[in-house]
Amino acid sequence: MTLHSPEHTAQALDARLAAASLQERLAIIAAEEGRAVFTTSLGIEDQVITAAIGLAQLPISVSTLETGRLFKQTLDLIAETEERFGISIERFVPKQDDIDAYAAKFGLNGFYESVEARHACCHVRKLVPLAEALAGARFWITGLRRSQSGNRAATPFAEYDAERGLIKVNPLADWSIEDINAYVEAESVPTNPLHKRGYPSIGCEPCTRAIKPGEPERAGRWWWENDEKRECGLHVPEAPASAIPTPA
Length: 248
Ligand code: SF4
Description:
CATH class: Alpha Beta
CATH superfamily: HUPs
Oligomer: single chain
Shape: globular
Number of helices: 7
Bound molecules: iron/sulfur cluster
């Protein structure tokens, strides 16, 4: 690792961000050279970051992955959030050829049948659009928190993502759900009404259920799978290349 390598920059940023507030963390990234992209799922953590960007009108691009399988409440929230904070949220959608190839190989809802099929669907509907959203970015801002799941317990404030060739920034890494709720209350941040119906973590409609009292926050995501560390591949590489269908 050299003094000006991205690994070194990420390490230095990690230490700098640790001592800063959320607003300061975002302002630090916005002041850095290079494009910063925040990808929002419209979940409550991401709404906090969107609010902080919007309230300060920071030069950070806000993007979302419109998978084509989102809840109506999530789609409505995109428009409400744009209006509330005077920002534009850029939608990245899957390619129709990819969806057709997936459906031909696995069936449109084939993700229930195997982990391989589920990873392939997330690849087509999330990972490919994510790559488009991050094209040319130097920084990728996310709403990951350490207390969301055991899989995220070691989330740093900044780290070099060698696979994508950018610095991943997690400005809420040390926030608790209580911190999130307090910010939402204080700033009147619009949130997904599904949160109050037992959905702390909301993804695509067919792959998200409400959780029972005492269950981990992400237990309602891909609930039919047994792996405790299940993710969609956005933040943890999961999909083996053989699982990915090639568009016809
Ligand atoms: S969460 Fe479900 S519907 Fe959405 S991309 Fe992944 S497998 Fe497909």
